[in-house]
Amino acid sequence: MKQVNEDTGRYFGREVVRREDRNHLIGNGHFTDDLAPPDTLYVAILRSPHTHARIRSLDTKGARKLPGVVTVFAGEDLKERLNPLPPNWVLPGMSVPEHPALAYEKARFVGDGVAVVVAESRYIARDALDLIRVDYEPLPAVTDAETAAKPGAPVLHENAPNNVAFVFPSRGGNYVRAEKKADVRVRQRIVNQRMIPNALEPRSVLAEYDAGSDGLTIHSSTQGPHNIKHRISEVLRFPEHKLRVVAPDVGGGFGSKLHLYPEEVLCAFLARELGRSVKWTESRSEGFLATNHGRDHIQYVEVAAKADGKITGLKATVYANLGAYLSGMGPGVPSVNFAFMVSGTYKIPNIDVTVYGVYTNTPRVDTYRGAGRPEATHLVERAVDLVSQELGMDPAEVRRKNFIPKDAFPYRAPNSAFKYDSGDYEPNLDKALSMVGYAELRGRQRELRREGRYLGIGIASYTEFTGIGPGRELNMVGFQYGGWEYARVLVHPEGTVTVYSGSADHGQGHATSYAQIAADSLGLPIEDIRVVEDDTATVQFGNGTFNSRSMPVGGIAIKTCCDQIIAKAKQIAAHALDTREGDVTYSEGKFRITSEPGTLGTAARTALKTRRAVVGTAVRAVSGLDMPRAKTAGGAVSWVEVARLAHFVSDYPSGLEPGLDEQTFYQPKTLTFPFGTYVAVVEVDVKTGEISFEKFVAVDDCGPVINPLLATGQIHGGLAQGIGQALLEGAAYDEAGKPVTDSFWNYAMPRAGNLPSFETAHTVTPSPANPLGIKGVGEAGTIGAPPAMVNAVVDALSPFGVKHLDMPVTSEKVWRAIQESRTQEEQRNGGRR
Amino acid sequence: MIPNEFDYLVPTSVEEAVGLLQEHEDQARILAGGHGLIPRMKRCLEEPRVLIDVGRIPELHGIRRENGSVLIGATTTHAELEAADLHDTAPILPQAATVVADPLVRNRGTFGGSLADAESAADWPAVALALDAVVHAVGPERARAIPIRDFFLEPMVTALEPEELLTHVEISLPAGADGSEAGMRYEKFTHPASGYAVVGVAAVVVADSEGVCRECRIAVTGACARATRATATENLLVGEVLEAQTIARAAEQAAEGLELVGDHHASASYREHLVSVYTERALLASALSTIDQADSTSPQ
To answer: pTM of this prediction?
Structure first.
């Protein structure tokens, strides 16, 4: 092995290059679809072309006759054999409608699976779909949540009258009083549109059954293999100890690959049923229809404020679209994740939020990068700008005036069960304003307006919660996860280390960042650390990667476990050095005796040395053999020697269990709350409504940064998605409820050419919740960028009296807003004349 | 999605390709860059039985000059046009190539393929119309030249016979012998999803030394079902001095007679507005380049 580097320094804070990249760049990655055991069968799914329809009959005979087809199942065939797919976040008191793996009797959205074909090749499987005869009776359908919640709307599930799955109230203070005493009130309807996540790698599932061991192995492109294992066990009625779920390389997820899907259940079932390997890989077109969507809120917002800009109350009534069935965290995202975060970075004493979770004839809606916090942040950041505009105040100053003060942490909003751990918002805002040259920009904005050019400056402050846990608190709001993360640290006899984590990398770079944490904690060079995740057979426990929880929960689990390793290693070292454990220090590969032991320490050392001499003499007298001796030098013993001793026990404390292999279930104390300020500067061409970028500044605070390269990568990616939501993306349905956006030809993903060059920076406010002070950073960009962008465009258009634009802010919407304002102006002028 | 089964044939000469077209009749489609055809095949919007890949026919590829004309081989890629030295002759070709989709598409997609595909929002049909190009095709019996104004019949339908292969496109330079200069420009509002044009306007103007417009051809793509000349605006400009106000007034008529289309990114009425704005932009840039040329060639 490579010798322990005496001069490792600290890896924390260094721009360590991603260890994962080389493999991916040279094609050594292994994604689920790359795997194909011999004789694998292929699965294709027949999906409803109707938004809502009764299935009068479904005839699979023709498909069965096609040579190469192994079997065909309809929903009706499976309803008794499989349990429904369970959500794992059920709000207290709500009912759960049945979510079958394949629809029977009724199909509830375009893309709802109604039959499954298994064939010798994926081409035959696909051709067989055309031979299944389905007699559908189209039913009235509804795709938007507000309409679906109205009396008389088409109903999806019998146990959810009016399609309302839940009503989630979240109140604190007295909004009615605040509203009465307010100097100004603003109201706005805000649509946070439906997003289609579109991870680079489509979903894929490979299920293998071994009859000999009755073992079922499922490879799936998922963010949470352990959770999937547990849920498949429940749906299949198959014991968990015979199930193994592997998430090999996963090409992105953004929350859309976190939850149990019908296809995972179907492949697992079919493999066991047929005793063969079966595989399904989503086409991109299927992905648009059948992979979870995100966001989709209709929000009615009211804000009460004083003349000096102090916001005294916030009220929101929200219709959140859940889709046709409940996905894993479907109910939790628009309730808990959203409602507890509506006041953002502001101290607002009176809050009144009501969320209606509503079923519609659309794909399931669940976690999408940010999951509830983008919807909350956009709401409050738009609201603050509306107040600023109403009062004619600078939006930066209104933010400053309402910030939760630094000394108010830990802070709990009046309507929330969450406590913000730490924050220091003003210096962060100031840094962003100075980077963008705010004062000077406002001057330039005024000058340009005189030339008929329209510059817009949009600010968004955000805070959000990352590192989900602790479990018990979350269970009280219906979240059925343990909240902890699992780590195991295993030291090999030569001293190299394998770190196991129950989180599940799908592009984040855990093999790099976790290795940095472990290398520092163990005082070893990073080359000696290997990180293993994503397989329930090699990592026995885990909760998965979501909610930017891997570093603040998974990372601290690893650190805790490494500390356990060092504690045990010190016992071994102390024995080798003939001293007490408390007199040993460890750094950078060496255990040393503390230089100045006290009287007691010296006495102990003498006693231990004497004992070794006495025992040694006795053994030599009887056997003629020398007692084996640890390799020590100058009152020190190396990491490598301790690792050797731990396994070969030649010079080892009596009574101590051999081995250096520790595990931990780390339960975080609280959530962590990163924050930041984004400033977007755009110019709007008022002739066409086209928006061009001048600048985009992002100042984030996620506590101390483990790897600036990776953190900046997360920010850049998040900003791209956030700007995508602000300007380009959004699922659309026609009047019959058919999806209009079903491919990249009509769904506008952000591309490099749509984005500005980002200027990023950090402030550092450590979290008191964990020993490294770290907070998550994975979702910041998608949370802060949309309101910064919309605020910038609305700011540019303020001379036209424009107050709000819904996302995506397309050029046409901007142009229409200007046209409307000009028409009103003309009418006013005409009226005066 | 997965396309239906098809045969893949690779002829190495025009003659062989035409023979294959004849043999397979309407079952066959020509494959050039594939950037229109293959996405449609993946979604089963088109299900040809035979693909004839013309990518390995040397005579279909490259840019030549002949008797004052520029000949562009059918399989010349967008990227090759982008890099081509045509700035003294037809600068609109390299300029328009820079806004065709993205670099990946430009490296594979072809000029001839784009014209033969006749996608309603593609860029080259408008440019070719404004340049008054001539399309050359070879069939089993004969070779023929088709004026571009007779080429686009309907969306995705051209004047090519099923057994004809587009070989090259001829562009004759519009500058007159009387010292007049041609200016040209393609202006595009890119579709945020597809990369095609929401609105694309190509303009070619010829002005005499007095700045009077002698010739003017404007073509619009994206806003309508097929690339179309904006004749109302053209007629308003010929004989006029190319001044900003004149151009703006004429550009207001650019959408006249167009059958406008829309989608959820940009409605028909918005596109109608964009046609005028982009026509004005294309004309201003064209007029400016005639002045620039006049300036740089006039003796000081």
So the answer is: 0.96
Position of tokens 């975080």?
Answer: A668
As beta bridge partners, residue A733 has A739
A813 shares contact with chain B (CB less than 8 Å): no
**A positions 258-297 inside 8 Å of B (CB):** 283, 285
Kind of pairing, strands A584-587 and B63-66? unpaired
Among A280, A307, A322, A385, which residue's Cα sits nearest to residue A47?
A280
Distance CA A812, CA B271 (A): 9
Locate all alpha helices (DSSP H) within A455-578, ordered by sequence: 471-476, 510-522, 556-576
Calculate the alpha carbon distances from B101 to A625, A690, A805, B107, B154 in Å: 81, 18, 28, 10, 22
Reading the block at residue A186, the tokens are 């603003």
Q: C-alpha distances in angstroms, A70 versus A42, A113, A124?
A: 9, 19, 10
pLDDT (tens digit per residue) in A225-260: 999 999 999 999 999 999 999 999 999 999 999 999
Size of interface A-B (CB pairs under 8 A): 55
Q: What is the mean pLDDT of residues A157-185?
A: 97
Q: What pLDDT, on a 0 to 100 scale, did the predictor assign at position B26?
A: 86
Reported as a single tens digit per residue, the pLDDT across A57-102 is 999 999 999 999 999 999 999 999 999 999 999 999 898 999 999 9
What φ, ψ does residue A426 adopt, rounded to 5°? -65, -45
What whole-number distance in Å separates Cα of residue A779 and Cα of residue A562?
28
> Any CB–CB contact under 8 A between A49 and chain B?
no
Option in B193, B267, B277 nearest A812 (CB): B267
Q: Which of residues 390-409 of A touch B (CB under 8 A)?
A: none
pLDDT at A4: 34
Structure tokens at A377: 């942040």
H helices of chain B, in order, are: 14-24, 37-42, 78-83, 92-97, 103-108, 111-117, 124-130, 231-237, 244-251, 268-297
Residue A545, SS3 per DSSP: coil
Instruction: Test B43 with A743 for CB contact under 8 angstroms.
Output: yes
Which residue in B193, B273, B274 is closest to A744 by CB distance? B193
Interchain contact A687–B (C-beta under 8 A): yes
Decide if B194 and A815 are in contact by the 8 Å CB cutoff. Answer: no
Chain A neighbors of B119, CB-CB under 8 A: none
Please report the pLDDT score of residue B177 as a whole number.
54
Neighbours of A531 (CB within 10 A): 23
Give A739's contacts in chain B (Cβ within 8 Å).
none
Tell me the pLDDT tens digit for each residue of A579-603.
999 999 999 999 999 867 677 778 8
Residues in CB range of A405: below 8 A, 6 or more apart: A347
ipTM above 0.90, yes or no: yes
**Is the per-residue pLDDT at B3 higher than 90?**
no
β-pair partners for A194 = A295
Smallest Cα–Cα separation from B40: which of A231, A693, A498, A285? A285
Which residues on chain B are in Cβ contact (under 8 Å) with A740? 263-264
Of A283, A688, A744, the CB nearest to B277: A688
Contact predicate A47/A111, CB 8 Å: yes
Which site among A811, A814, A820 would you substitute to test the B interface, given the most B Cβ atoms closer than 10 Å to its Cβ? A811
Name the token pair of A777. 């950073």
**Chain B residues in contact with A724 (beta carbon < 8 A):** none
Which of A122, A748, A816 has the CB atom closest to B192's CB atom?
A748
Count of CB atoms within 10 A of residue A582's CB? 13
Decide if B264 and A746 are in contact by the 8 Å CB cutoff: yes
What are the tokens at A356? 């209606």
- Which residue of A lies nearest to B197 if distances are taken between CA atoms? A745
Query: Could you count the other beta carbons within 10 Å of the beta carbon of residue A538?
Result: 13
